[in-house]
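Re: the request from the purification team.
They wanted to know what the chain is likely to look like in 3D before they choose a buffer screen. I agreed to run a prediction and write the result into the notebook, where they can find it.
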Amino acid sequence: MDVVLRPINDRFFHEQVLPFLSRAMGDAAGALESLLDGLGDGQARMLCERMLSTALPGGLNSVDADPWADLVDRLAFLLWTEGPAGWEVSREHAGYADAWDEALHLALMLEEPNYPYWDTRAAREVRDAFRLRPLPDMGLASLLAGHWDPFPEFPPDRVFVTQGRGEYFPAMNFAFADWSWRPARAVAHWQVNMPRKLERLLVREQARMKLPALPEKDEVLGYWLGRLPQPPPLTVAFSGLGPRAANWIRELGALTAHIREAALAKQGLAALVTKGTTVRI
């Protein structure tokens, strides 16, 4: 299984996607008709009209499942822009894709000071539990595991499913699914706090190795923060990263770069756990 992160237009998601999905829970046909009024994208309009031609009164069960999945995939995971005819899919924009388990491992290293990343078995147990019940307030790790913040007005696992994961508890303001998103303000907050979290990870590793200093610390941090184009060759293998330390440093750099680019563009982020190994990035 892979996970994909893609930038999203914050205003489009707030003004079009969220109201559409909320209304579709009880009135799918009405939601499709309302969505059509604001869309200039030919593919999305075709999918809406196809479902309206066969829709029955009611919620999601009243429309065909295949075009519904295609429409939600297009609305939630592509970058949109407002044009003369309405909202349209913007230019192609490369996203981030990685093995879900590895991306979650990197995110937990970044977000959770007590994550036992150096212990293979213990770290896997944490990740497996996190996938079954993502914890809130864990930044990027929570997003990758499908936790919703802000809490949605609809059950997200009823909208879109790839692995069959999901819970929705309105009384607890808790929801997670195989997909999730974060608004631009959350992504900007992550970016502001990124240097502190990355430096904390390096300090933690230095303490674990019982070294007076990490020779490549400044260069690794500079790469992760986008100040250097390439990571340095490692003279000391990071003990918590093992023999793949160099690869993981590159992968964490790719992940932080994606957050940085979205923050600079004032975009939100959407995450999707894919059905198989084929992903669209």
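For the purification team: Confidence is low (pLDDT under 50) at residues 277-281.
Please add any questions underneath this entry.
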